Amino acid sequence: MKREDYIEWDEYFMGIALLSAKRSKDPNTQVGACIVNTDKRIVGVGYNGLPKGCSDDEFPWEREGDFLDTKYPFVCHAELNAILNSTKSLKDCTIYVALFPCHECSKAIIQSGIRELVYLSDKYSGTKSDLASKKMLDAAGVKYRKLESKLDKLVLSFDSKDY
Asked: Rounded CA gap, 151 and 149, in Å?
């Protein structure tokens, strides 16, 4: 008889996005993204961080202050990194991300051909960036939905006795 307590596909791919977020050096916000094709194959992953060649120790991670003294002009969001790290065409793919994307990431999602967005949190709902994102996604026909999981958390173990 097969196991009954396995995770659903949405939980699996969101789990990959959440695990990817653990690579982020940002002390305040860690976001990951996972892009999946129609065959349920992962074709891109990313997390929020500095562009390749820019040292994590030489650029700011602050949230407030003069623009050039904050992280905002320098950090690439998880969605953009997943798109740029993709290995195949993103036409008709689904992107999984913990936070609903900002307007800049929504542009990249639309332009890449991604057709569905699955997210966990919409904590910036109603902001100008959020309203712009949703307006563009709706106009472009990109579906988006909040993941309603039966799981509160998923624990990974590196202890060899668990295998």
From this structure: 5
More confident position, 12 or 151: 12
How far is 160 from 163, CA to CA, in rounded Å? 6
Question: Could you give the dihedral angle defined by the CA atoms of residues 84, 87, 89 and 90, in that order, rounded to the nearest 10 degrees?
Answer: -60
Which residues is 42 bridged to in the sheet? 36
pTM: 0.94
Q: State the CB neighbour count (10 A cutoff) for residue 134.
A: 19
Six token digits for residue 92: 């008709």
The tokens for 87 are 């290995």
pLDDT in tens, 91-150: 999 999 999 999 999 999 999 999 999 999 999 999 999 999 999 999 999 999 999 998
Pairing of strands 32-36, 42-47: antiparallel
Read off φ and ψ for residue 51, nearest 5 degrees.
-60, 155
Which residues are identified as catalytic?
79
In the chain, where do the E strands start and end? 32-36, 42-47, 94-99, 116-121, 143-146
Backbone CA torsion sign across 97, 156, 44, 68: positive
